[in-house]
Amino acid sequence: MERENSTVVSEFILLGLTQSQHAQLLVFMLVLVFYFIILPENFLIILTIRSDPGLTAPLYFFLGNLAFLDASYSFIVAPRMLVDFLSEKKIISYRGCITQLFFLHFLGAGEMFLLVVMAFDCYVAICHPLHYSTVMNPRVCYALLLALWLGGFTHSIVQAALILRLPFCGPNQLGNFCDVPQVIKLACTDTFVVELLMVSNSGLLTLLCFLGLLASYAVILCRVKGYSSEGKNKALSTCTRHIITVFLMFGPAIFIYTRPFRAFPADKVVSLFHTVIFPLMNPVIYTLRNQEAKASMKKLLSRHMVC
C-alpha cells in the first residue's frame, strides 16, 4: 500500500517529561490535582450559567463556552499523560498521534478565537454601552460562536493535512504528547517549507491575535479614564481578568509556534503548562472576580447540598 511505502513508522514512543521517577511522581500529582479539582469547577461554571436565568448576558454565554472548550481541551492530553506516568512503555499509534494533534489545534484555535470574540464583547460593553444590546444580540453571538468553531476546524485540518503528507521512517521518539513541532522533527525529509507554513499558520496567527488583543484592551483602558470611579473600577476589573487569560493562553503558544521547530530545554515544561495546567485556569480566573457568577454558583451549591 502507498501508506506503508511512505510511512514506515506505525507508532511513536513517548519519552515523557523526565526520566527521573521522583520528578515523574511530582508532575503526576500536580496534573492529578489540576485535573480532578479545577476541572469540576469548569463544569460547575457551565452548569451555573445554564441553570441561572439571570446570567443571560453575552459575557456569560461566551464564558460558558470558554469553560466547555477548556474542559474538552484538557481531555486530549491529560488522561493519557496520567496513565503514561504509571506505565513503563509509553506508545501511541500513528493514527492516534494525528488524531491527538488535530483536536489539540482544533480546540486550541477555537479558544484563541473565542478570546478575540470576548475582547470584542468587552470593547462594545465598555466603549459603546448604549448600542451594546443591538450589536451583541443573540443572533450575532451565535454567529460569532459558529465562526470561531469553523475557524478552529480550518486551522486544525490544515495542520493535520500537512503532517499526513510527510514520510516517517524513524526515529519515532516524541516528548510528552503529539504536537506539530515534535512530529515534524521526526520526518525523514526536508521540512523547511512545511515548517514555514506551520509557523505562518500557527505562530503568525497567534502573534497577530495576541497583539490585536493587547491593542484592544489598551484602547479600552484609555477610554475609561474619564469614567466615574465606580465605572472605572469595574472596567479595570474586567480588563484585568481578560489580560491575565490572554497572557496565560498566548504566552506559551507564542514561545512554541513562532520560532523554527528546534528543541529547547524549556519546551517540555512550557508544553505541559500550556496544554494541561493553564487551560483549566482560564474560566476560573474569569469567574472568581465576577460577583454575579460567584453568587449564582454559591446558590446552586447551597441548593444541591440542602437537597
Automatic annotation (TrEMBL):
Gene3D superfamilies xrefs: Rhodopsin 7-helix transmembrane proteins
GO MF, one annotated term: olfactory receptor activity
Broad class of where this protein is predominantly found: membrane
Record bears the keyword Cell membrane: yes
Localization per Swiss-Prot or TrEMBL: Cell membrane
Key words of the record: Cell membrane, G-protein coupled receptor, Membrane, Olfaction, Receptor, Sensory transduction, Transducer, Transmembrane, Transmembrane helix
Membrane-spanning intervals of the chain: 25-47, 59-82, 102-128, 140-164, 204-224, 236-257, 269-288
Membrane protein topology class: Multi-pass membrane protein
Similarity remark: Belongs to the G-protein coupled receptor 1 family.
Name this polypeptide is given: G-protein coupled receptors family 1 profile domain-containing protein
Originating species: Ursus americanus (American black bear)
This protein's encoding gene: LOC123786345
